[in-house]
Predict the structure.
Amino acid sequence: MITISQALEGSAATLVKVSDTPTLDAQTILAHCLGKSRTWLLTHPEESLTNSAFSSLQQEINALERGIPLPYVLGHWEFYGLDFTVTPDTLIPRPETELLVDKALDWLNLQPEPCMAADIGTGSGCIAVALAKHNPDVSVIATDISYPALKIGRANTIQHNVDHQVNFLQTDLFPPIADRFDLVCANLPYIPTQTLQNLEVSGREPDMALDGGPNGLDLISSLLEEAPGHIAPRGILLIEVESSQGAKAQYLAQRAFPSAEIEVLSDLSGKDRLVMIQLPKIY
Ligand SMILES: C[S@@+](CC[C@H](N)C(=O)[O-])C[C@H]1O[C@@H](n2cnc3c(N)ncnc32)[C@H](O)[C@@H]1O
């Protein structure tokens, strides 16, 4: 029988071909197969694997070798300190998107009244859930064009006990309702089609979640055109952008909201990441 330390060594050696972090990935996968923590594994190196655990490990290592991303193999991933179910129907939540959630919560926490928010292109629901979990007064409408993604988003709200705060709707960008939102968050597809074809994520995560059209700004531009009919005076719109799109997105935002205060914020690596549009009392 193979021991934990032998299994880890063998798995890491296999994963060298497909991962920059083979040791960590091997530990994560084996911990997942055994239903134990990584710490437990490292403190029980001589423990033997059962045949069924070894067979699960082999299947999951094979999946990684075939290029399936680790979060899809595990079936879950962390975002904003919360654990989210993810499937190949949803984008894997990225740490860069935490900046959008930070800014949204900073703003929400200053509002004297409960707010109505929209999360456009919700995917796994990670933004909507993080907002609802950290601000019990906010109500969120989360939209996506993908019904399978919405099902996962809904499951995540239930898992985090915020399903009473978040409603899901399958629609193209904004929901067709007359109410105006105080806060609009959007992490829409923004990778230019041509660029996407040369990226590793292409074909591994849903194209619908990544492809932003010829210049990457198709969805963001449509969102900004529609947005004036959907945001309340003194409201705020937060749009995640690709690092090369800050200036162009700012120009589109200025055109849609000439009297708004517009800022492009950088992520931790100093790259443009977020366009923040704050509306005046009358716009
Ligand atoms: C970049 S992913 C973001 C997912 C999630 N908000 C996150 O931050 O991880 C973009 C999402 O927008 C959705 N989407 C694409 N086109 C859309 C449209 N026209 N209207 C609404 N959602 C759309 C995709 O299905 C995908 O779930």
Notes: The mean pLDDT is 96.
